[in-house]
Design a protein that fits this description.
The protein is mainly alpha-helical. The chain contains 8 helices and 2 strands. It has helices at about 50-65, 65-75, 100-105, 110-115, 120-130, 140-150, 170-175, 190-200; strands at about 160-165, 185. It has a two-stranded antiparallel sheet. The longest helix is centred in the N-terminal third of the chain and has 14 residues, at about 50-65. The two termini are about 25 Å apart. It comes from Hoeflea halophila. Belongs to the virb1 family. This is Transglycosylase-like protein with SLT domain.
Length: about 210
């Protein structure tokens, strides 16, 4: 979500070691649509429209990041729904594709109420606007997700500590403390998002 305070769900981060998954054979394009016009297959692509996929691919290219990583982040932040109006259940006010916090929305020139009224394709403009300062730095999934969860950790090592026991942030994200040592590291925070990247490349979800 757009903020550096913990907002929406929890996050787990491990350095990515995934190999590209095989993609299903591309179907014959409909009449009037060439293979060059079809959006490329990306993780979770079967859950969104072709226009949404095209825009994600274009945004990722401009931000010098992997479109599969952006899709995995949005899948995690929205509970796999890609619903631009989804709100965080903890009462933080976080809303939308990357769970924009109210203050973050205002900084971007909008509000969470306005974001919730947008369709997903329109809201992607604000996703790009939020991520733009990290362009070229989101080289792996953990770093890309840190831009959403905890921006100061974008360029940090995997063992960088995000939350410590005793803090409100730790309380909200204690489920990410995999080894139970009272600390949540960047690597631990990446685990669940990384799992959704793998899931989103499965047949029936990649597209």
């Amino acid at each position: 979500m757009a903020r550096f305070s913990p907002f929406t769900s929890l996050f787990s981060w491990l350095p990515e070691k995934l190999l590209p998954c095989g993609q299903p054979a591309s179907p014959t394009p409909p009449p009037g649509l060439s293979s060059d016009d079809r959006p490329k297959a990306i993780a979770w692509g079967a859950r969104v429209s072709s226009d949404f996929k095209r825009k994600v691919v274009a945004i990722a290219a401009r931000l010098d990041m992997n479109p599969n990583h952006l899709m995995a982040i949005m899948a995690f932040e929205t509970g796999r729904s890609f619903d631009p109006a989804v709100t965080n259940q903890t009462g933080s006010g976080a809303t939308g594709l990357i769970q924009f916090m109210p203050a973050t929305a205002i900084a971007l020139g909008t509000t969470t109420t306005e974001l919730a009224r947008m369709d997903a394709i329109a809201q992607l403009d604000y996703v790009e606007k939020y991520l733009a300062p990290y362009s070229g730095r989101m080289k792996d999934l953990p770093s890309a997700y840190m831009a959403v969860l905890f921006p100061r950790a974008v360029d940090k090592a995997a063992d960088y500590v995000l939350f410590r026991k005793g803090s409100k942030a730790y309380k909200l994200n204690r489920g990410l403390d995999i080894d139970g040592n009272g600390l949540v590291t960047k690597a631990e925070a990446a685990t669940k998002v990384l799992a959704l990247l793998v899931e989103g490349k499965r047949p029936g979800l990649i597209g």
